[in-house]
Amino acid sequence: MATQRDIARTAGVSLAVVSAVINGTTHTRMSETTRARVIQAMESLGYQPNHAARSLRLNRTGMIALILHKLDNPVYTQLLRGVYETAAERGDAVLLGDAEAMRSGSQFVARLLSHGTVDGILIRDDRLYDDEVMAELRSHPKPILTLDNARDHPWVGIDDHRGGEIATRFLLNLRHRRIVFLGGTEASRQRYLGYRQEMQQAGLEPAPHLATGFGEQAGADGLRQALQLPAAPTAVVVNNIMSAVGVLAAARDLGIAVPDQLSVVGIHDVGLMEHMRPAVTAVRMPMYELGRAGVHALYELMAGRPGTGGVIADPEPELVVRDSATALSGA
Question: Given this model, what pLDDT does residue 194 score?
C-alpha cells in the first residue's frame, strides 16, 4: 500500500507538501503545478487517504455543500466542474443541493446545518432565496460563501457588468441603435447596467430592463414585450443564454428572421448554442474559474481567514461570435 512518503519520492517534493495537498491546508506555499504533480503521483500509486481518520484529526467532515437554482441549467456545467475538481484536489466531496428545497424550517435546511454534515456552504445568487432562509443559514457557525456579487458577506463573482458591456458594444459596432436588454430579474441588474453604460456612451437612450426571468419561456415573453415598445428593436442582448433559445423560437413563430431582421446576443455560453440554427453569438463567462475560486475562498473562511473574494478579473468575459447577429443593413 502506497504511503505519503512514496508520493513525496515520486513527485519529487517534501513530505510536508504531500501532507498539505492531502489535508487541504493552505499554510504550505506551493504552485498549482506542484499540487498537480502530487495529485498525479497519488493517482499513479493508487493512494487512498483515510478520510475517517483525517476528519477526526481535523474536526472536519470532508464535505462542502453547493446549492444551486435550477439544477438542469446547462450554464452550471463548467461551474460544477470547477467546484468538484477543486474540492477533489483537497480530498473532499461535494453535496449538491437544489435551491427549490431551501425553505425556512425545511428538513433539508435542518440536515444541512446539523452537526457533522458539511464544513462549509457555497450558494449561487443568494438574492433569489427567502430572507428567512438566509437568516437561518447565517445563524449557524458554518462558513457561507456566495458565488455572485454580494453586499455584506463573503463572495466571489464573475464580472456581470463587463458581460453586458461586451454584448452591447458588439451590437453597436454592427451599427445597431435600437438595442433592448431582456431576461433575468432585478437581481441580475449588473448586466443591464453594463448595457446601459454602453448605450449612454454611444449617445443613445437605453430601453428599460425587461426583467422576465430565466429560461426559454422568459426569453419568448421578453421578445414579445420588446416588440411592443414604441421603437421595436433591431437587436437584443439576452441576460441568460437559455432565454436566448426562447427568443429564437418566438422570433420564428412571429415570422422574424434572425439575424436579418433581429440580431441576438446571449450572455453565458454552452455547447448547445453552437448547434442552434442560427448558432447563437454569446458572451462566455468564466464559470469554471468561478467554481475554483469559490472553493478556494471557502476553504480560507473554514480556516478562519477572511478569504480572497471579489470579482474574477482573469479571464474576463469573452465574446464568441457565431451566426445570430449581423450588421444592420442600410444604417
Answer: 97
Q: What HEC string does 57-100 produce?
A: HHCCCCEEEEEECCCCCCCHHHHHHHHHHHHHHCCCEEEEEEHH
- Partners of 96 in the beta sheet? 66
Nearest to 104 by CA among 139, 65, 148, 63: 139
Neighbours of 311 (CB within 10 A): 16
State the pTM of this model: 0.80
- In three-state secondary structure terms, 12 is coil
The answer, yes or no, to whether the previous bond of 206 is cis (omega within 30 of 0) is no
Superfamily of domain 4-49: lambda repressor-like DNA-binding domains (1.10.260.40)
Domain 160-286, what architecture? Answer: 3-Layer(aba) Sandwich (3.40)
Residues 39-57: tens digit of each pLDDT: 888 888 888 765 544 544 4
